[in-house]
Amino acid sequence: MRPIQTIFTALALFSLPCSALDLTQHAFFKHLIGEWKAEGKLTGENNKVVTITETWTGKVDATDSFSIEGTRTMNGDTQKFNWAITHNSATDSYEAVLTGSDGQTIRFEGSVSDVTLVMDLKAITGNGNGSIAVQDTLEGADKETMNSNVTFTGDQGQTTLEGTIIHKRVKVP
């Protein structure tokens, strides 16, 4: 094959649409469908404690899109939140956008392991040196519990807030 034909053939192959990932059957996301309750605490600088309780529902919106909608109470202040998680089949990565009740969004990028059933998400914050990292791990044989390890890092690289939130399934749809 001539070089120019090889290049066009390669471009044609790379431009073919990739099949969408069906999250209703995905090893990790299929376990998040339903209603959940969570509680935990994050400890910050000067040992300041933030207590958290949540109720949320997880559902597949489209074959490659998952949403989590609920309410979160932090130190007595209750607000609605929404996670929109999508799979990018071209890079086999995930994008998650967290929207608070005030409409502000935080964009996370990450990965999900089909084997260990762990989702790692990270958002860059502040002047680009800070971050929020979330590691969600499904636990137990029944996968009815999920541990969320959360770490906030400041612009100087210091940990400003960290802890664990434990989610328990309430109801399967």
Poorly predicted spans: 1-19
Spatially, the strands of the biggest sheet line up as 1-2-3-4-5-6-7-8-9-10
How many H/I helical runs? 1
% residues in beta strands: over 45%
* Biggest sheet statistics: 10 strands, antiparallel, barrel
**Which percent range fits the helix content?**
under 10%
For CATH, the homologous superfamily is named as Calycin beta-barrel core domain
**SSE order in H/E notation?**
HEEEEEEEEEE
* Intertermini distance: 55 Å
Q: What is the mean pLDDT? A: 87
CATH fold group: Lipocalin
The CATH class: Mainly Beta
How many distinct beta strands?
10
CATH architecture: Beta Barrel
Structure in words:
It contains one helix and ten strands. The chain is mostly beta strands and 173 residues long. It has a single domain (20-171), classed as Calycin beta-barrel core domain (Lipocalin, Beta Barrel), CATH 2.40.128.20. Strands 1-2-3-4-5-6-7-8-9-10 form a ten-stranded antiparallel beta barrel. A hairpin with a 5-residue loop joins strand 8 (130-139) and strand 9 (145-153). The termini are far apart. The model is unreliable at 1-19 (pLDDT under 50).
Keywords:
about 170 residues; mainly beta; Lipocalin; 1 helix; about 60% strand; disordered N terminus
Quick overview of this protein structure:
It is built from one helix and ten strands; from the N terminus they run H-E-E-E-E-E-E-E-E-E-E. The chain is mainly β and 173 residues long.
